[in-house]
Design brief:
Elements (H helix, E strand, L loop, with lengths): L24 H13 L7 H11 L4 E4 L6 H12 L3 E5 L6 H5 E5 L6 E5 L6 E5 L6 H4 L3 H6 L1 E4 L2 E4 L5 E6 L13 H5 L3 E3 L6 H8 L4 H5 L8 H10 L7 H17 L8 H17 L7 H12 L4 H4 L3 H14 L8 H4 L2
Helix pairs in contact: 2-12, 11-12, 11-13, 11-15, 12-13, 13-15
């Protein structure tokens, strides 16, 4: 199933505050998070982490029960960044070509033409990814790692920005699912759980606040070109060698103590650092502090512990949180040591 649209230019909903496009980095990110939080009510932490993954050039995996706002969050992000939205529904009969697109023969011209699949959108929701077969799951690998797809030997670039939001049901007791292979998990920057919104937020939902009513009237918080620029500027957030060493200490601790057959890859270290940079940018900083690494470590590493996450992602998150507390935290670099 494919669903696409471009962000409308209508007025915002009454319960969503949308000001003029922010010109500074932190202001633009804050406007994005605030607007999406007005649609997806409840704890804003998953929204902040999803925004950090987007800015870091990564992708998000949600493992949660149905009906907690995962689809709504993906749509709200797409509209808020001014991008197009595509949706893929994971099923056992879904083919790789249903995701990437196909090359077909035009009857009139007798020429081969490429018809893009739903991946050719700025934000792509892959719902219930683990209901698709491993063959179809693998169709996402090139797209998520390189921003392109290859069909019949021809490489096609994907839109910029390109952001995948995938969901999967908890493995335990759920029939008809295929566990994600390690390479697929490693392509996701963060794994998140929305959870229930809490009583006060749920009462607001029952009263008609947020949700589809607010979504219908969203407009971009900034031009798509602004988000393209901010994603490039994440690389300019300074990473002090002490903080880089601390981030690697965290990864090494998880590697050594998680007992996984597949240790965390170098991609995990790079993703953790990029997430920390994006988190620092969202906080208005020009440098990464140890606090930024700590804020993203659980979401950025837990799903990569293959043995633990195949059946019990909450346990893996608990493990990473415990390991994180065991790593000595260095002092935040002072003003002098932040300079390049």
């Amino acid at each position: 199933m494919v669903q696409t649209w471009s962000a409308p230019a209508g007025a915002p909903a009454d319960d969503v505050t949308v000001g003029p496009p922010a010109t500074d980095q932190a202001g633009a990110i804050r406007a994005l998070v605030d607007q999406v939080s007005g649609v997806v009510l409840g704890d804003p932490t998953p929204i902040r982490l999803a925004a950090a993954a987007f800015l870091a050039g990564g992708h998000v995996l949600f493992e949660d029960v149905p009906g907690v706002g995962k689809t709504l969050l993906a749509k709200a992000l797409a509209r808020s960044i001014g991008g197009s939205f595509g949706r893929v529904q994971g099923t056992p009969d879904l083919l790789p070509s249903d995701v990437t697109g196909i090359t077909f023969l035009e009857e009139d011209t007798r020429e081969w033409t490429f018809r893009p699949g739903p991946l050719f959108n700025n934000v792509v929701l892959v719902d219930e990814l683990n209901r698709a077969t491993p063959r179809t799951q693998s169709a996402l690998l090139e797209a998520m790692a390189e921003g392109q797809v290859t069909v019949d030997g021809v490489t096609h670039p994907l839109p910029d920005p390109f952001f995948v939001v995938a969901t999967q049901n908890p493995q335990s007791g759920d029939l008809g699912t295929f566990p994600l292979v390690g390479g697929q998990r490693d392509r996701f920057s963060v794994s998140l759980s929305m959870g229930l919104p809490g009583r006060e937020a749920e009462l607001r939902v029952l009263a008609g606040k947020g949700g589809d009513h607010a979504l219908a009237n969203l407009r971009p918080t900034a031009d798509l070109a602004v988000w393209q620029r901010l994603r490039h500027e994440v690389d300019d957030v300074y990473l002090h060698p002490l903080v880089a060493s601390y981030a690697l200490d965290v990864v090494d601790t998880v590697r050594n103590r998680a007992g996984s057959r597949q240790p965390l890859s170098t991609r995990a270290s790079l993703a953790l650092v990029q997430l920390a940079r994006a988190h620092a940018m969202a906080g208005g900083l020009s440098h990464v502090a140890p606090d930024d690494v700590q804020a993203v470590a659980v979401a950025g590493l837990a799903h990569r512990i293959i043995d633990a996450t195949n059946d019990d992602l909450p346990t893996a998150r608990t493990w990473v949180g415990e390991f994180l507390r065991q790593v000595p935290t260095p002092p935040s670099p002072d003003r002098e040591t932040r300079a390049r």
